Structures are given as C-alpha cells and as structure tokens.
C-alpha cells in the first residue's frame, strides 16, 4: 500500500473555530491559509466550516483551481504578483499583497480593462527582510498608490518569521498602526485592513498584547498543525494531530549501526556520518525523499528513531519500540509545516479523510 496521509477534518474545523473565536474577541479577522496543504478542497471546506473569514494562498494555480471548484469566498494572494500574470490576478483574486508600484500600476490597468476594482495590501518590512517597503518609504508609496486607477488601497500588512525569523511584538506591529494613522492624517486615506502576520502572532493574541488597530491575521500552520514553528511551541488549546502520515514496513532486520567498507557520498551527494551503537533492529519503510521532506516528519512512537533516507526508502531504528514491529505494519508520523507542505502535494502519497461534510 502507498504511504497514506490521514486528515482529520473535524480537528481542522475545531482548530479553525478556536482561532477565530480568540481573534474575533479582539476584532481581528482570520484568513485561512491554504498553501500548506496545496488547497485540497476538503480541507478548504473544513476551514470555512470552522468559520474563517476568508482564504489566502501564495500560488495562483491553487487559487484558480479553487475558483474552478466553486469556492466564491474572498481570496487573498499571499505572494507578490508577477508582472507577467496581472490579468489572472485581477480575474481570480480579490486582494493581493504588493510592494512594487510598477506591479500595482499593471494590476490597476488590467482591472480597469475588465471593469474591476482590485484591492491591494501594501506590505511593510518591519525587520524580517522579506517582502515590503521600509517604513521611511511607506508614505511616499502610499501617495503613488492613491493615484492609481483600478486599484483599491485596502491597507497595510507585514510578514514575520518566514525569512529572518523576526518575531511579532507590540513594537513592530505597533509600527503598522502608527503608519496607518500617518497615512490617514496626511493623505486622508482611511485604510480598512492592518494585517499583522500569521501563526507567530497568535501568542500575542493569547496574551492580549496585539496593538489596537491590527485587525487581520493570516493563519495556516496554527489551524492545520496546532504548532507555531517560529516561537518553537505546540499551541496547547489546539489539536496537533489533524494530519498523520503512515508508511509500511517492507524490511525488518538486525544490522550493524555502521556501514562496512569505505564511505563515499550517498545518492544525494552527502557524506553520511554514523555512530557505532552496536547491532540494532532496523526497519525499512516504503517512504523516501521523493515522497516527502523527510526532515519534516517525526515518528509518533518516540522510541523510534529515523536513521536516514534515500529517494525511495526510510530507514528507522525500532530497537527500543515498546510495540513488536513486523513486516507489513504501518508506522505513523507527525508532520511539521515543511513535512505537510511536501506530503500534501506528493502524488505518491494517498490521502484519506476522517469526518465528512457537516
């Protein structure tokens, strides 16, 4: 049997509802981010059933597929639009994040030709050094945006934790609110949306420390996995096992822990390192690097250790497992965000859903 990704839709609905409830308490809307699971429609529907206020994705391919499947909810594009793709963006997307005036001009022209008004969120770089204009350039950029036809200047946003690892704080999120006030005061533009990041901002929500004025978060990992990688924590009030990956044991033997012979490079060009801990019970699973990002999975049984992987095989040490492992058994794994990202789009991994439509 092929590796299997088990997806508990009930737990995803629950997590979405919990996140929405906590955020709405502070006047913060929630966009359910669909890119982490390749916008699989059953999971998208679970997010909506849980009450998210809109959807967001970084891939136009996912967004177009969602529209073709009949999803008519507001969708935000989370990657700066390509200049070569503005026609598709204004056709399929309600809102896009932006930092380049040239692209915003092109979006406006494309929207005008179609008789549309495309909303943009101006991204501000508050320190993570990914997308966004620096704070000292925000007012001038806002002036340029205000003259664009076909464009609705919807608000300001920022991204944290994805490149530089910078954590959200009352200070850097407060900067967005200050910039909103400056734009209102000097340009008489009343922005509707101040988007304060994603899952990494939930800890501030829990503590009641999100600055007043932040009114949107874009949540993926927290709802899907109940984790917050940037803050290195499991979120205690959410399910952390809505996704489980299972793979079958295809060999089980006692073998030395160090290869015999001269060590060269493995099939991926790396020189492997081994520690001699004697003869161990080793299982090979029908799961490899071509199936999933191996560094993004962790055995559910904490007594099992991943030793390594090739393109088609995962080698694990099962010596200390309390369960007797046999050929044909399935071994279960939790996934990190990177693991889910790869498993969800892998055509070699089957998907099974627990909990149907409500």
Automatic annotation (TrEMBL):
GO terms for molecular function: ornithine racemase activity. The keyword Isomerase applies. Its EC number is 5.1.1.12. It holds the Pfam family Ala_racemase_N. It is an enzyme of class 5 (isomerase). Residues 7-222 form the Alanine racemase N-terminal domain. InterPro entries: Ala_racemase (IPR000821), Ala_racemase_N (IPR001608), PLP-binding_barrel (IPR029066). Its cofactor is pyridoxal 5'-phosphate. The keyword Cell cycle does not apply. It comes from the Bacteria. Keywords: Isomerase, Pyridoxal phosphate. Gene3D superfamilies: Alanine racemase (3.20.20.10). PANTHER family: ALANINE RACEMASE, LYSINE RACEMASE. This is Ornithine racemase. It comes from Sporomusa acidovorans (strain ATCC 49682 / DSM 3132 / Mol). The lineage of its organism: Bacteria, Bacillati, Bacillota, Negativicutes, Selenomonadales.
């Amino acid at each position: 049997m092929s590796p299997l990704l088990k997806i508990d839709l009930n737990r995803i609905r629950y997590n979405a509802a919990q996140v929405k409830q906590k955020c709405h308490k502070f006047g913060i809307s929630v966009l359910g981010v669909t890119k982490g699971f390749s916008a699989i429609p059953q999971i998208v529907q679970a997010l909506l059933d849980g009450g998210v206020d809109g959807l967001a994705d970084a891939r136009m391919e996912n967004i177009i597929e969602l529209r073709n499947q009949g999803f008519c909810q507001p969708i935000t594009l989370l990657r700066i639009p390509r200049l070569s793709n503005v026609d598709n963006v204004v056709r399929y997307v309600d809102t896009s994040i932006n930092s380049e005036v040239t692209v915003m001009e092109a979006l406006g022209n494309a929207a005008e030709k179609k008789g549309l008004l495309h909303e943009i969120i101006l991204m501000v770089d508050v320190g993570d050094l990914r997308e966004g204009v620096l704070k000292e350039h925000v007012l001038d950029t806002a002036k340029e945006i205000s003259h664009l036809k076909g464009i609705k200047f919807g608000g300001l946003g920022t991204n944290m934790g994805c490149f530089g690892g910078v954590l959200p704080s009352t200070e850097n999120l407060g900067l967005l609110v200050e910039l909103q006030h400056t734009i209102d005061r000097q340009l008489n533009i009343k922005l509707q949306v101040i988007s304060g990041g994603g899952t990494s901002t939930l800890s501030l929500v829990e503590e009641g420390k999100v600055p007043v004025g932040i009114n949107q978060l874009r949540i993926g990992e927290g709802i899907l996995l109940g984790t917050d990688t940037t803050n290195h924590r499991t979120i205690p009030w959410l399910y952390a096992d809505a996704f489980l990956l299972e793979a079958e044991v295809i060999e089980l033997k006692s073998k030395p822990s160090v290869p015999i012979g001269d060590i060269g490079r493995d099939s991926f060009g790396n020189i492997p390192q081994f520690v001699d801990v004697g003869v161990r019970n080793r299982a090979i699973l029908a799961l490899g690097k071509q199936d999933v990002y191996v560094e993004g999975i962790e055995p559910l049984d904490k007594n099992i250790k991943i030793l390594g992987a090739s393109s088609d095989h995962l080698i694990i040490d099962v010596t200390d497992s309390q369960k007797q492992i046999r050929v044909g058994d399935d071994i279960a794994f939790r996934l990190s965000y990177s693991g889910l990202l790869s498993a969800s789009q892998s055509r070699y991994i089957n998907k099974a859903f627990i909990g149907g439509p409500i």
